[in-house]
Amino acid sequence: MIILTGDDLTLEDVRQVIFENERVDASAESWKRVEKSRKKVDSIVQSGQIIYGINTGFGKLSDVKIKDRDVKELQQNLIFSHACGVGEPFTETISKTICLLRANALLKGYSGVRPLIIERLFQFINLGIVPVIPRQGSLGASGDLAPLSHLALTIIGEGEVFYKGKRMATSEAYYMEGIEPIQLEAKEGLALINGTQVMTAIGAIAYIEAEKLAYQSEIIAAMTIEALEGIIEAFDENIHRVRGYVEQIEVAKRMRRYLSGSRLITRQGEKRVQDAYSIRCIPQVHGASWQTLNYVKEKLEIEMNAATDNPLIFTEANKIISGGNFHGQPIAFAMDFLKIAMSELANISERRTERLVNPQLNDFPSFLSPNPGLQSGLMILQYSAASLVSENKTLAHPASVDSIPSSANQEDHVSMGTTAARHAYEIIQNVRTCLAIECICALQAVEYRGIDNMATVTKNFYHRARKIVPPIERDRIFSKDMKRMTEWLKQLPLFFLNEVG
User: Which PROSITE patterns does this chain map to (predicted)?
Assistant: First the structure.
């Protein structure tokens, strides 16, 4: 059970809830904060005080006073009118994460919702009711308005959900679970949709997958080094210590561990004086990507525990203040950085793949083919990797440098953070395929050197990977191998490398 407080949710907590189906609940202290915040909203409605989002219109319509009798209708109208998401829905993994992050933000006690709203989000998470949320349509400021409105629709019994493996009307899932729709009251509609939880949820899942890929890239690269009889001195501790980047030092240390005991690696001058950059500079390049991953993790964990609603209710100070915490610029930058960092892992992987299959760069049969000429071998796997690397360069163009005004120019600068996050997630899927391709090529190449000569760690990894993609004895439909290897890498637990080591 993961207990949410609104203040200390971690990416590891997210991983356990989303991928291990841990149940969630809230701390007693957070429920007290929520109740105090709600009482403040009720008192405002009763007093007739004019507060944005409680008894006014929204955006450019904030100067329009709403009559007391229409306050509830205002919230429903907000959800209906703002549910303008387009495109295919997010995966169930991402939509479930959105529910988790939205619940955690509301638990901070600055949004003024009833506990009932948060309890419904908990029901969604714990029962496996996942809102269908279109993935396009957010500007990433004023929050993720359009996609979060589709989440809010399901709370009031509208829209669609994924439930028990099917996509269905929310009302149908409610009937099956004996759940009643909730009628939103003052402030609750706005509190549900004003925030950065969509871009942050995508970013959280992207990071979890990216972290695993970064580790996998190193052991796959180690196997490539053995296949190419790489020079071990490039990973010597002294080289990396004098530059001083912690992440670079750590990558080099892991590479030495993975290659420990290998009889395939060589020494300076033994076969060549220096290796190509894609081999020699693994600690420098991968280490720089790790620097970015660490930055991204820090920003995500701040944002996951942030109050991003507007207005915010400060019960202790007796203040209700309109601001701009919904602006997604910090996450937009983080996601753009993540795009670049992960693209580079694919870039350097594809170059290593080229060195494995190009007969002008190695002493293997051309394209690792069992019968070069009659059989093309792994020639076109490198084409696919090159195509994905090129596509990543387009996706890596920063979304955060763009902005376009909305709401009659009242909302005149936006982050495009959700676009950045979506593209980061796409890039990560491409990176995984590029690494799967390098892995398939390295598995085949290292067989020419002798499996018995491999390091203990890489040999263990080799044998496990060979259960997924068997040795290539003749041309076959390699897209099937690529798919199997990609899915295997995705499913491998993060602690897998500790096992093979």
Answer: PAL_HISTIDASE
